[in-house]
Amino acid sequence: MTTMLAIFGPLLMGAAFGFLLQRGKVTSCNVIENQFRLRDFTVLKVMGTAIVVGGIGVLLLVDTGSAKYAVKDANMLGVALGAALFGVGMVVYGYCPGTALGAIATGSIHALVGALGMIAGAILYALSFDWLKGHVLNVWALGKVRLPDITGVPDAVWFAALAVGAGAFFWWIESRAPKKA
């Protein structure tokens, strides 16, 4: 039974994820491009909701002893450069990796071509990792830290603030949207 769950559990979760991406309309490059044009905030709302729900889920798993945090090194220069590269790639491509796979599943050829570019980029990153580790990842490296560790503010307060902030931001977005007749 455990083997079956290990095989079919991820498949079911992936199918559910793809279904929800499709239902949320974020497998359309037009929706993603319009996010960057500040015309359609669907992507921001979907991702914000996923971050809040996922974060609270992880917090509950850790608090109940069902999981442990696996804290990675906070290499801030690497994160900043990676985020910038990711953002530029998302604007040019019109997808993030998850939405690209969802779009491929709907038959999008340009999403498939772009996914090949993502694979090529991953290979280039792997081939250049030793150089990056010596010249980029060690700059502004904070070690294995989390915001609660740095600030002394408990996890639950961070997640509550994140949820309230996201809710307020979503309300503000919706209140400024043109009313549909």
In terms of topology, how is this protein built?
Blueprint (H helix, E strand, L loop, with lengths): L1 H22 L5 H8 L5 H22 L12 H18 L3 H9 L3 H27 L11 H5 L3 H22 L5
Q: Order of SSEs, N→C? A: HHHHHHHH
Q: How many whole angstroms does the radius of gyration measure?
A: 19 Å
Distance between the termini: 53 Å
Strand content: under 5%
Structural class: mainly alpha
Instruction: Profile the largest sheet.
Output: none
Number of strands: 0
The dominant shape is globular
Total of helices: 8
| Residue windows where pLDDT falls under 50 for at least 5 positions | none
Helix content bin: over 70%
Mean pLDDT: 91
Give an overview in words.
With 181 residues, the protein is mostly helical. Helices cover 73% and strands 0% of the residues. The chain is built from 8 helices and no strands. It has helices at residues 2-23, 29-36, 42-63, 76-93, 97-105, 109-135, 147-151, 155-176. Helix 1 (2-23) crosses helix 5, helix 3 (42-63) runs antiparallel to helix 8 and helix 5 runs antiparallel to helix 6. The termini are far apart. The mean pLDDT is 91.
